[in-house]
Amino acid sequence: MIHVNKKIALAAMALVMLTGTIACKEGRTTTIVNKTNNESQKIKYSGKIVFTKDETGIEHISDGGYLEFEQNGREFKAEDDRKGHVTYEFNGDSKVTSLSHEQKAFVATAVKQIIKTKATLR
């Protein structure tokens, strides 16, 4: 009976250690939520996000990284496709790499808001 309990305990410890290792590889996630009377905003990201020099787009996202932005019911998620490209998903639609004029404008607004919000947190 003691031999069986030791095997269960060792298996449980191995599972806990494996889960901890996987969690560490995921990296740190940051979530920022702003709410006022007329507006709500949520920024969630993980990994390194590099914005374009003109601060209107996303130049690069590190492997496994992502950025989620939601403002007043409109949202997008940008992530690395593991091939060096940024893919976007707007309001739950399918992933795209080329953006329409409206999508580019929304990403530009988001980038400006994210930079402004991060500056106020420092």
Short note summarizing the structure:
The chain is of the alpha+beta class. The chain has helices at residues 2-26, 101-121; strands at residues 29-35, 40-46, 49-51, 58-61, 66-71, 74-80, 86-90.
**Largest beta sheet: strand ordering:** 1-2-5-6-7
What's the helix-strand series? HEEEEEEEH
User: How large is the share of residues in beta strands?
Assistant: 25-35%
Q: What is the count of helical runs?
A: 2
Ends: how far apart?
Answer: 57 Å
Cα gyration radius (Å) = 20 Å
The number of strands is 7
Structural class: alpha+beta
- The overall pLDDT, averaged over residues, is 82
Helix content: 25-40%
Biggest sheet, in brief? 5 strands, antiparallel
The global form is globular
Low-confidence runs: 9-25
Descriptive terms for the model:
two-stranded antiparallel sheet; 7 strands
Explain this structure to me?
38% of the residues lie in helices and 32% in strands. A hairpin with a 6-residue loop joins strand 3 and strand 4. With 122 residues, it is α+β, with helices and mostly antiparallel strands. The relative contact order is 0.13. The N and C termini lie far apart (57 Å). The strands form 2 sheets. Strands 1-2-5-6-7 form a 5-stranded antiparallel sheet, covered by helices on one side. Strands 3-4 form a two-stranded antiparallel sheet. The radius of gyration is 20 Å and the shape is globular. The model is unreliable at 9-25 (pLDDT under 50). It has helices at 2-26, 101-121; strands at residues 29-35, 40-46, 49-51, 58-61, 66-71, 74-80, 86-90. It is built from 2 helices and 7 strands, in the order αβββββββα.
